[in-house]
């Protein structure tokens, strides 16, 4: 069955690459936002003396993962359910987990490529230095937990999408809202009302962005975070909890067709 899952992943990747519009918007929209924010605010520095462009680069990796894993997974499942792809696959020996692993391979590959593009923009355009080797270890586990959590939540939320044509609009509502309250577009988060900080802390995006800032920003930037700490233990705990929540929701909501109950 592992071979079946890998084969499905290969098919998913080929189908995605054939859709040039999806390729362009998936990879270059976050990079375009980074270029705009970095260029407009790049000359400014935080109280810690860190260039705004560098802060945006680190934080935007969280947006790239959320946009790629959550939206791509959710909209892809909604489309497969509506056009009958899932119904046809149900009649084959492919179990649900093999299909989902195939999707997961796609979003993981896309997330890696998205992160590489954003880091490349930061390094080549905004002169952001690459972090030391030990920070890449931290980057790896934060990245993997982020992709897993966002992918599982994308699977769960896809069950709420009744019309695949509206999937992008529906899924992007929480994506855009969370970027503004989670320290991606607005940093430091102390600029937000206290109640918005508390709301953002319930969701994974705030912790994803904070973790990636630890990886790419200098130690003095830690003072700009809530409580003046990178708090990597909390980052790991919250992302791990959301992985479990996402898995439970997937098992509860996954359907082969929109009419299935």
Q: Say how many strands there are.
A: 0
Q: What kind of sheet is the major sheet?
A: none
Cα shape: globular
State Rg: 19 Å
Low-pLDDT residue intervals, each spanning 5 or more residues: none
| Tally of separate domains | 1
**Averaged pLDDT, please?**
86
The secondary structure category is mainly alpha
Number of helices: 10
SSE ordering: HHHHHHHHHH
Please give the alpha-carbon distance between the first and last residues.
26 Å
Helix content: over 70%
Q: How large a portion of the residues is in β-strands, by DSSP E?
A: under 5%
GO cellular component, one term: ATP-binding cassette (ABC) transporter complex
Keywords: Antibiotic resistance, Cell membrane, Membrane, Transmembrane, Transmembrane helix, Transport
Membrane topology: Multi-pass membrane protein
Main location: membrane
Q: Please, could you describe this protein's structure?
A:
InterPro entries: ABC2_TM, ABC2_TM_bact-type, ABC_2_transport, Nod_factor_ABC_transporter. One of its GO terms (cellular component) is ATP-binding cassette (ABC) transporter complex. This is Transport permease protein. The chain has 261 residues and is mainly α. It has one domain. Helix content is 73%, strand content 0%. It has ten helices and no strands. It has helices at 2-18, 20-41, 52-82, 85-90, 96-126, 133-158, 167-181, 194-201, 204-216, 232-253. The model has no long low-confidence stretch (mean pLDDT 86).
């Amino acid at each position: 069955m592992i071979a079946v899952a890998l084969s499905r992943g290969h098919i998913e990747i080929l189908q995605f690459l054939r859709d040039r519009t999806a390729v362009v918007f998936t990879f270059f929209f976050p990079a375009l936002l980074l270029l705009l924010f970095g260029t407009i605010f790049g000359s400014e520095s935080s109280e810690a003396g860190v260039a705004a462009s560098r802060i945006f680069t680190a934080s935007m990796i969280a947006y790239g993962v959320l946009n790629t894993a959550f939206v791509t997974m959710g909209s892809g499942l909604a489309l497969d359910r509506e056009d009958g792809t899932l119904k046809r696959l149900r009649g084959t020996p492919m179990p649900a987990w093999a299909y989902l692993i195939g999707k997961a391979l796609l979003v993981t590959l896309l997330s890696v490529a998205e992160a590489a593009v954003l880091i490349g923009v930061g390094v080549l355009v905004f002169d952001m230095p690459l972090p030391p080797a030990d920070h890449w270890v931290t980057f790896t586990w934060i990245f993997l937990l982020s992709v897993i959590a966002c992918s599982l939540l994308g699977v769960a939320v896809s069950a709420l999408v009744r019309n695949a044509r509206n999937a992008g609009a529906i899924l992007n509502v929480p994506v855009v809202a969370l970027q503004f309250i989670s320290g991606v577009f607005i940093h430091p988060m102390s600029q937000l009302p206290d109640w918005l900080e508390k709301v953002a802390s319930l969701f994974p995006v705030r912790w994803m962005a904070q973790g990636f800032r630890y990886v790419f920003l200098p130690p003095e930037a830690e003072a700009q975070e809530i409580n003046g700490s990178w708090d990597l233990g909390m980052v790991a705990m919250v992302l791990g909890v959301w992985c479990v929540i996402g898995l439970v929701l997937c098992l509860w909501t996954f359907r082969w067709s929109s009419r299935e109950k």
